[in-house]
Amino acid sequence: MAQYDVIIIGSGPGGYVCAIRCAQLGLKTAVVEGRETLGGTCLNVGCIPSKAMLHATHSLHEAEHNFAKMGLKGKSPSVDWKQMLAYKDDVIGQNTKGIEFLFKKNKVDWIKGWGSIPEAGKVKVGDDTHNAKHIIIASGSDSANVPGAEVEIDEKVIVTSTGALELASIPKTMVVVGGGVIGLELGSVYARLGTDVTVIEYLDAITPGQDAEVAKQFQRLLQKQGLKFITGAGVSKVEAKGGKATVNYALRKNDSQHELKADTVLVATGRKPHTEGLGLDGLGIKMTKRGQIAVDDGYATSVEGIYAIGDVIEGPMLAHKAEDEGMALAEILAGQAGHVNYDVIPGVIYTHPEVASVGMTEEQLKEEGRDYKVGKFSFMGNGRAKANFAGDGFVKMLADAKTDRILGCHVIGPMAGDLIHEVCVAMEFGAAAEDLARTCHAHPTYSEAMREAALACGDGAIHA
Ligand code: NAI
Question: What residue stretches are annotated with the FAD/NAD(P)-binding domain (predicted)?
Answer without folding.
Answer: 4-326
